[in-house]
Every structure is written in C-alpha cells, then in structure tokens.
C-alpha cells in the first residue's frame, strides 16, 4: 500500500476560474482546474496524481461500461469568512465508499487515504470555493473497473478519480415528489445501500414519468409491498409528525445511509427533539398530512441540502404540504448546518475537517 503523501502534483498550465459566471452557475456542469487519478493494478493502489482536469482513456471493452462495477460519492467543501476550507464529514464518505466497494467486489481504499486524496485536491483548487452564502465546492470521488475484458468477473484493475465542481443549490425551489408504487429503486438483498452508478441509471425511466407529470423526484417505496416509503432519488426523506422527527430506518439494505440525514438526526437529538428511525407506511404519511399532524417534510442530501417538499403526489391526488416559512425545525436545521459548514458557529459535533 502506498503512503498517502505520495500524491504527485502536475499543475494545470492555465486556470478556467475567470470564466465562471457565479450569477448563473448550473449544478455539475462547471469543473475546477484539477482532478485526482489513482489506479489499482497488480493488486495494489499505485501513486495518485493530481493533474489538469480532462478526458480519461477508455478501452471499448472497459469492464465498468459493460457490467457496471462503478461507484461514487458526493461531499462538499466550504470556505469560511476567514478563508479556511472546511470539508463536511469526509470520513463518513470514505467509510461509505469502502462499503460500496466491498458490495461491488472492488478494492477498498483505506479511509485515511481517501480523505487525504480529497483534502489535497481541494487544497489545490481552493480558490474555486466561493465563500458567499449558498455556494460550495461539490466533490465527486468515483471508482470504476477498467479491465479490457468482455468476460463477466470482477475486474483486476480500477481507476479512482476525484473531480470538483463549484455549485449552488441542486434544487432552486421547493420539491414536488410522487409516491412510486410500481417501479422499484432497490430490493432487499440488492445494492440500494451502496452508492452504485446503476441505482441511478435504473431510476431514470420511472423518474422521467414522474417529471412529465410535474414532479421533480419520486418517493420510492419498498420493492416487496410498495406500502412503505423509503427515500427519494437524490436524498433521504424526513418528516415531522406530532413533534417527532421520523425517517425510514436503515435496517433494510435498500436505503442509502445518508450523511446529511444522520447529521439532522444528531442535531435534533441535541435539541431534545424525539427521533424515530423506523418503517413509515404510505397510509401513516397520508393520514398525518390529512389530519394536520404532519408539520414538516423535507429531503436531506449533500447536493440537495435540506430540500423542503412542497407537494406529494399520491395516485390521483396532489397533497399540499405546510408552508415552508412556518417550518420551524427545518429552518433551524438549515441555519445551523450552514453556520457550522461556514465556520460561523462552533462545530460542537466535530463534523468539519479543516483542509
Ligand atoms: N439517497 C440517495 C439515493 C442519494 O443519492 C443521496 C445523495 O447522496 C442521499 C440519499 C443523501 O445522502 P448524503 O446525505 O450522504 O448525501
Ligand atoms: C449527492 O448528493 O452527492 C448525490 O450523489 C446526489 C446526486 C444527484 C448529485
């Protein structure tokens, strides 16, 4: 195993930073100057290199393209008013990446090495982080199989890459979701818990049907009975019913173990708000909406941040959620999380890592 200090740096000749239009910054389409590339060959990770962002080589028989050994992560860096760079819980992404690797028969990157690769890349492109409110640097680590081989078996070689994108919010307005009772995102025993590329590809067709009906996202339900809500396409789902914060439990292996959701739970607990992680049926959700005991509903995710849900589609009905302004808990969460990420408030939870 290589030491994490062995990251070769070949700086880009020129910077694209001056071309960025911060007023109109689309999510995920603007890329910083550098990327990190590290390959796994001969049974070990080779030296990582940070170099100019650009195309990667691809053999037509590249295993990931044909059989889907491909995983990714998403995390963010923020800049404080003092100019410090803070990563939000990168060790949690490192752990989830390792878990996804194992599930997909891919080599594990030691967690410290993963974090060091992220840290070093972000340090080099730190001038791409806008410290104005609402901006952050989205970091996309991913790994895929690169054996040029058409047979089906775990690849022997892999490429790990990290690139970064300056971003604003993923959703620019409150989100409308449709409860999906036919298609399935993840079944027990499958790969729903892992952050596997194929989970997203297979969700696109049902999500497109939802979008044609005016919904941003689907609210997935369990594969077996389609009676329990699970999560949305880009975020976990959280509800406030009768003063209790409720979210579908992670016990089933069909839900992504969200880092934002975990942080919201930790905040709620620190504020003395009861939390329940358990199964949530569609019937319970609909009843709580109709009898007014549901006061808040939002998605939680790195890209999505805390995304208020405005409408929920259920069969032929469109149910209006309570107004966003009155949502005391989620508004407090947004403010506190933003303050911690931007260093305005002491990080009593130890969530941030200074680059
Ligand atoms: N669920 C899905 C399917 C996601 O893609 C994401 C985003 O990463 C989440 C939940 C939220 O996870 P996290 O808060 O770790 O970003
Ligand atoms: C993330 O929040 O990091 C995700 O992976 C969601 C993706 C749609 C951007």
Characterization of the model:
This protein has helices spanning 63-67, 90-103, 111-124, 197-201, 204-212, 259-270, 282-290, 328-341, and strands at 7-9, 34-41, 44-45, 48-52, 70-72, 75-79, 85-88, 136-145, 158-167, 175-179, 217-221, 229-232, 236-241, 244-248, 275-278, 294-301, 305-314, 317-320, 352-354. By secondary structure, it is an alpha+beta fold. The strands form 2 sheets. Strands 1, 2, 3, 4, 5, 6, 7, 8, 9 and 19 form a 10-stranded mixed sheet that branches. The mean pLDDT is 96. The structure holds pyridoxal-5'-phosphate and 2-OXO-4-methylpentanoic acid. The site of pyridoxal-5'-phosphate has 14 residues, from helix 6 and strand 16.
What are the main properties of this structure?
single chain; alpha+beta; D-amino Acid Aminotransferase, Chain A, domain 2; nine-stranded mixed sheet; binds pyridoxal-5'-phosphate; binds 2-OXO-4-methylpentanoic acid
Offer a concise description of the structure:
By secondary structure, the protein is of the alpha+beta class. It folds into 2 domains: 4-168, 2-Layer Sandwich (D-amino Acid Aminotransferase, Chain A, domain 1); 175-337, D-amino Acid Aminotransferase, Chain A, domain 2, CATH 3.20.10.
């Amino acid at each position: 195993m290589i030491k994490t200090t062995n990251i070769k740096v070949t700086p880009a000749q020129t910077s694209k930073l001056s071309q960025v239009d911060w007023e109109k910054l689309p999510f995920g389409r603007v890329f910083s100057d550098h990327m990190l590339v590290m390959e796994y060959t001969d049974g070990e990770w080779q030296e990582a290199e940070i170099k100019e962002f650009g195309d990667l080589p691809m053999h037509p028989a590249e295993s990931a393209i044909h059989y889907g050994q491909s995983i990714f992560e998403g995390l963010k860096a923020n800049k404080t008013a003092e100019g410090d760079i803070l990563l939000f819980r990168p060790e949690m992404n490192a752990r989830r990446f390792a878990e996804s690797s194992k599930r997909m028969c891919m080599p594990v990157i030691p967690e410290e090495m993963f974090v060091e690769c992220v840290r070093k890349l972000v340090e080099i492109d730190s001038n791409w982080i806008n410290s104005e409110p609402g901006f952050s640097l989205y970091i996309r680590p991913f790994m895929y199989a690169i054996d040029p081989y058409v047979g089906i078996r775990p690849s022997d070689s892999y490429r790990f890459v990290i690139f970064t994108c300056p971003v604003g919010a993923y959703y620019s307005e409150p989100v409308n979701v449709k409860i999906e009772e036919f298609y399935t995102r993840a079944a027990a025993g499958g790969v729903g818990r892992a952050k596997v590329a194929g989970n997203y590809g297979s969700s696109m067709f049902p999500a497109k049907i939802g979008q044609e009906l005016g919904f941003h996202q689907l609210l997935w339900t369990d594969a077996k009975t389609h009676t329990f809500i699970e999560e949305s396409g880009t975020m976990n789902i959280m509800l406030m019913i009768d003063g209790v914060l409720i979210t579908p439990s992670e016990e089933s292996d069909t839900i992504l173990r969200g880092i934002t959701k975990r942080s919201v739970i930790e905040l709620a607990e620190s504020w003395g708000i009861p939390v329940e992680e358990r199964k949530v049926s569609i019937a319970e959700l609909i009843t709580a909406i109709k009898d007014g005991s549901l006061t808040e509903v939002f998605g939680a995710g790195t890209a999505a941040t805390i995304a208020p849900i405005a409408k929920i589609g259920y069969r032929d009905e469109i149910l209006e959620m309570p107004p966003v302004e009155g949502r005391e808990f989620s508004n407090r969460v947004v403010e506190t999380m933003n303050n911690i990420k931007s260093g305005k408030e002491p990080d009593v939870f130890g969530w941030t890592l200074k680059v």
